[in-house]
Amino acid sequence: MIVGIGVDVVDLARFERTLERTPALRGRLFAESEQLSGGRRLHVRSLAGRFAAKEAFIKAVGGSSGFSWHDMCVTSDEHGNPSLIVTGAAAEIAQSRNARAIHVSMSHDAGVAIAYVVIES
Fold it and tell me: Residue 32, Cβ neighbours under 10 Å: how many?
């Protein structure tokens, strides 16, 4: 049974300008492991997709009260398939919604990044 659905869209140019203007924001939004793939720094469009996934998760659980950006970690397997790992207060909120699986899909094209999150009980 689906207990939550969230979607978010990020303007790539705006996101890139924001990261350039506030370099410390990268570390506030993303764990070091989220910023790397194969030992190389991810491109801004990939980070924007990960940010959109976190925002979509927040919408799927009904709000972000009590947890931080680092309580949500977007990873990819060796084939590039994304997953969202939640810890701390984000995991507690997900558990309170009876979450058994969190599905995430991300894409970027034409100047935007988009992510969908579906939470299943």
Answer: 8
